[in-house]
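ok so I'm stuck.
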Amino acid sequence: MTVKTLGSETAARYREWVKRNREYVHQKTNDQVGYIHIPDMGGNGFAEFHRGFLSELDYPSLLVDIRHNRGGHVSPLLLEKLARRRIGYDQPRWTTPMEYPPDSVMGHMVALTDENAGSDGDIVSHCFKLMKLGKLIGTRTWGGVIGISPQSAFVDGGLTTQPEYSFWFVDVGWEVENYGTDPDIEVLYRPQDYVAGIDPQMERGIAEINALIEAEPPRLPEFGARPRLTLPRLPQG
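replied:
not stuck anymore, here's the structure
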């Protein structure tokens, strides 16, 4: 038998970490909260978001983990989906109701962020607060939101980048650059927590969303009796 070894075990370890977090959130919320992690705001992060988002919408509420987000440029696309407000249902004759708009969260959301979330990771963390999607929990983000243009190539195959895109928000102006965004609830993740196998940010996120669910449980509305409309009457004459 020939064994082909992995060039790197990073992807396998990441998949195991996400799987473990997801199962833990499900367990600690009695299957009331889904979990997704967004590792960056590029093609990989876009794929990871959708890998988990559609399946985790089977749970009434959602915990969004933005920690260690390496940035990119797809935050508007992801925020559009997270911001969808469920305002109606399409009730088929024989099956269960379908939410409108599709792929919208029924209940509550909270997000986790940290000092390793930068660039578009800063932006999506700040926008989660700004758009009032839910509480942002963790530590202040990295603070590097000026975009670059990697367009000056060297003859040896390398290249240099230039900072060219400053970022401004309606609430804080230019102040996310070189500062980051503050969480609504600060929770430190200390080295001794990591060694002990404890994730205090995750624990606080679970506690916050469980409290929201207890105060306002997500549930389908009472639709009432379906209308039984008569056929239109043809005009006489």
